[in-house]
Amino acid sequence: MMAGDLHTQTLTQLAQGLEHGHFTSVELTRALLERIERRSDELNAFVTVTADRALAAAERSDAARAKGEIEVLSGLPLVHKDIFCTRGVLTTCGSRMLENFVSPYDATVVERLSAAGAVMLGKTNMDEFAMGSSNETSFFGPVRNPWNLECSPGGSSGGSSASVAARLTPAATGTDTGGSIRQPAALTGTTGLKPTYGRVSRYGMIAFASSLDQAGVITRSAEDAALLLGVMAGFDERDSTSIDQPVPDYVAGLGKSLKGLRVGIVRQHFDAGLDEACRAAVREALAVLESQGATLTEVDLPNLDLSVPTYYVVAPAECSSNLSRFDGVRFGRRAEDPEDLLDLYCRSRGEGFGAEVKRRIMTGTYVLSAGYYDAYYLKAQQVRHLIADDFKQAFADVDVIAGPTAPTPAFKLGDKIDDPITMYLNDIYTIGANLAGLPGISVPCGFAEGLPVGLHLVGPHFGEQQILRASHQYQLQTDWHTRCPESFA
Amino acid sequence: MPGVVRVSSAWEVVIGLEIHTQLATDSKIFSGASTAYGAEPNTQACLVDLGYPGVLPVLNEEVVRMACKFGLAVDASIAPRSIFARKNYFYPDLPKGYQISQYELPIVEHGELFITAEDGTDKRIGITRAHLEEDAGKSIHEGLDRYSGIDLNRAGTPLLEIVSEPDLRSAKEAVAYMRKIHTIVRYLGISDGNMQEGSFRCDANVSIRPRGQEELGTRTELKNLNSFRFIEKAINYEIERQIDVLEDGGTVVQETRLYDSDRDETRPMRSKEEANDYRYFPDPDLLPVEIGEDYIEQIRATLPELPDAKQQRFVDAYGIKSDDAAILTMNRALADYFEAVATATDANPQVAANWVIGDLSGALNKDSVEIGDSRISAEDLAGLINRIHDNTISGKIAKEIFEAMWGGEGSADDVIEARGLKQITDTSAIEVIVDKVIADNPGQAAEYKAGKDKLIGFFVGQVMKETGGKANPGQVNAILRTKLGSS
Question: CA angle, corner A134, sides to A128 and A135, nearest 5?
Answer without folding.
Answer: 35
